[in-house]
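Hi R.,

As promised, here are both runs. First protein below:
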Amino acid sequence: MKRGKKYRELAQQVDRAALYEPQEAIALVKKMATAKFDETVEVHIRTGCDGRHADQQVRGAVVLPHGTGKSVKVLVFAKGAKLDEAQAAGADHVGGEELIPKIQNDGWLDFDVVVATPDMMGVVGRLGRVLGPKGLMPNPKAGTVTMDVTKAINDIKAGKIEYRLDKANIIHVPIGKASFTEEKLADNFQSLMEAIIKARPSAVKGQYIRSCTLASTMSPGVRLNTASLAK
């Protein structure tokens, strides 16, 4: 893959043979985030899991102490009193069965997270082909299938993020913006890693976290010393 001149210049600041401590990596990524917009800082974690096996799946959610720096639009599928509760809690969109054709046929996707009460999952399940590939299907493990819609909305708005394995057994998650202080990014990174380490499937043998890379939207990746994170 051919890289631009600016990217190549930034890449010269990274020692490709080195494994950086988290604090060093965060400082370096912030320094390299020179785009005209506020770049997102992301963590990419290669695991020793084999996601083809159900007992080696990693999926969950964590509330980052300083949020992600992004304002998140929440859609809630509910009925009755739970509709009013969702609106009062600050959901951006609420509804039920009437939203199915709008999403399915009109391609309406003006939301970042979908929350559903358990009694609505039969309806939401019909959107599997649309929401599934986009990672938007509500899931009990992520706390997005719940009767406590107020807590779900509050957590999401406060900076709750979902993590899961992709097909290559890598977890990709944002931990904030380049404009965040190093301390805030470090706090968010620590909270994320603690959650992922805690979520280690018992069926995984050997090294759980194989490698961990930190990068901003436009910067090269900085590899972290995983020995200080987890075996």
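And here is the second one, sequence first, then its structure tokens:
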Amino acid sequence: MKASEKRALLPGTVLKERYILENVSGEGSFGITYIGWDLLLESRVAVKEFFPVSRVNRNAEQGEQDVYVFEEEDYEQSLRRYLEEGKRLSRLNQVEGIVSIRDFFYANHTAYIIMEYIEGVSLKTHIEQNGPMQGNVVMGMMSPVLDALEKVHENGIIHRDISPDNIIVTKDNKLVLVDFGSARQVDGIDRSLTVMVKRGYSSPEQYRSRGEQGAWSDVYAICATMYFMLSGKAPDEAIDRILDDETKSLLDMKEVQLSKKLKKAVMKGISLRYNERYQTVTELKKALRDTGEKEKKLKKWWKVCAVSVLGLVAVIWSFWRFYPGAGEEDGSGHRTGGIVGLPLQTASQWLFFSDQVVKEMVADNRINTVRVPDVREKKLAKAKKILSRSGLKCKVVRVESREKENTVVSQNEEPGKECEAGSRIVLQVSKGTPSTPAPSVRPPAARTPAPKPKPKPKPKQGNQNKYDGIIE
């Protein structure tokens, strides 16, 4: 049997005729934690026993329950401080983020604190099993813990043992700070060096016999814990960092999804010099909150700007593309519409409206009525393009004219007249002026004069069925 197992009380031991101990859940140089059962409330509890191994001992294997003290200097005073801190912590039972204190008492020549049993796994185990967390998740989960630690400091208590081992991840994915066994100051720091120091998470001043410990020491530990949550690795031990700091900065970790300002805030929290850190958890919270809020506002501002610009572009494009009279200028001072002449289903898809809405728009003459553009004296290709953009079709009739070839001489509908989209406009297009034949060298032979041809009837304007010219 190990020496530690000899010290721990045996399963089945009853304390205060109410709490039955089941097994040991953790043990350190400053105390032993048991899982127990509350006979009164019929619920599981955590029991913390004050057991500084540098001062007391016990042989539980032989049935001993009382500890015997071999280093009696200020031991009784240490016991009083231990329970006094338990009383102070019990005032914070309603604070989210720290374990609740249910009871505290003297027994077996030592003292016990009964705490709420938190179901879950340690943060260390959670990270080892699942890997590092996203930056926004870390900040969100740590917020209640920071609030709780702030209140602990306000009550004159410093935890001094914050680490992923002492933070539980509950079933509903929340963090709870536990194990306040090192939260009291015992006879000077030099007597509890092995208790106060945890590699990677204890501040440099906790390694010195006369180091100035304070809220900034907990700031170091909580920021080192966040470093572990983000990177999956603990910072190097503080004493090693003093000699040669090889701890990789979060700023150099591209895989860590967190802004530079928040990374800087965490790294400042693990500065080796205590006066270069945030002096209180309140300052740390403010730095994280202000940085986070500024970034959120900036991201929100950019999103609003982007949405506004896109919306404006969409409105302008939609107005130009779809609204009647909002297209290109047709040459007559009017502007062509974009959806005129489209089938109902197509128009509905383009406008994102239902067929009924489009029908109402058609009935309201906002889609199926267009104005006839003036294409006279324009080249045929240009005239066709203008009519097409206006939602109109065209029929070309070739006529002799003094105008240049392929020039529109006339149109059967007056410019500016409203007509139904898809209507056919008849255009008279010049074939060009016929050239005069060159005179013959030889005199023409005598021949019977040809009969005089009958004159062709002149076409009437607007009659689309009586042209004698070439129809395309």
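A quick note on the second one: The two ends are 110 Å apart (CA to CA). Let me know what you think.

Best,
J.
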